[in-house]
Amino acid sequence: MHDGDERRRLGHGSSIATDADKAARECVQEALGGRNPESADLMVVFPSVEYDPHVFFSAAADAAAPAQVVGCSSHAGFVSGNSGAMDAVAIYLPADDLSFGIAAVAPIGTAVFACAQEVTTRARERAGDQGDHAVLLVLSDGLAGDQREIVRGSYSVTGATVPLVGAAASDDLSMSGTYQFAEGEVMSNGLIAVWINAPYPLGIGVEHGWHPIGEPMVVTRAEGNVIHELDGRPAAEVYLFQRSTDPAPAQNYGSPERTFAADTFNHPLGLANASGRLDGRHILGRTDEGALIMFGHVSEQSVVQVMAGDADDLVRAAGRAAAQAAEQLDRPSRGALIFSCTGRIAPLGAQVAAETAAISAGLGDVPVAGFFTFGEFARVTGSTGFHNATVVVLAV
């Protein structure tokens, strides 16, 4: 490999160290691979919520200096060439002929649309005008209300020509809080935008691997991320009927017994979109009244369908996402950032690492890395693009 090619290569690193400072430095230094970072470069880090975020992000920024550093908390991270889930992951993107504009805002509160507009506008300004192609990368608080408003707010700035990709930060499924980091600040309830300019196309792939079963249903009563009724009946009752599953006792996260959410990870709902496909929506739990609590907001009169799939289906879908991303490139890939839903972990089972390997292979055995999220962003056409139960690939 020529020196110039080595300099441009995406690098990844990981750590399972229990100490936050050590974990941050280990994954960043491995991602650098002996290269000296420059101020225009970008380091993206995904630590688990078990680490003190202030200690971790401070150490990561110090180890990556003078490169720009952004990141968010994760349920777990992953890198190609490693068979296990990682507590900390770093991805190094040397600038070379790319330019990055970074902006962040916190707290988002209820002003999700306006905050998305704000950070997208500032990130675009900071990236400059160079480059014939652009992609907007966003990292959000996974518990920050209607994530669809982030897509809509950003779209109001980017228009149809700039695709959006990214993910919602996650935690250990306690739903107690997530963290974001940009511009030297640790945030909770924050939103980060990274505008990427390039002289060549970047590739985005999005697939989930689920297939519909049962009959289409109409959301007849919903509020926020709670579906109260499907086809005019209690949502959980209709959902279980479509699955041909006997009802189980209602339980929430934190119970020592198997949760309702865990029982539904292999049967998410599919939300019909304008292109005639089904976007994934995982179920977080159910209420005593029989409503379904969703990972993402769902509007009334939406058409949904129960979906099913096994580990092989999900791994093949990851390979298809890589193929989609590769088709959009006009040169060999340098590597990729991956965003995969936390709800895919249980259905993948022992094949969790196979998902990462399928993506790497589909892009030409390049380094890939990412984290398990509370939701994925992928908007290539149209103004929608928030997903659950899905894997998203950004190939550079």
Automatic annotation (TrEMBL):
Region (Disordered): 1-22
Superkingdom: Bacteria
Protein name, as recorded: FIST N domain protein
Domain FIST: 39-234
Residue ranges of domain FIST C-domain in the record: 235-380
Cross-referenced InterPro entries: FIST_C (IPR019494), FIST_domain_N (IPR013702)
Species assigned in the record: Paractinoplanes durhamensis
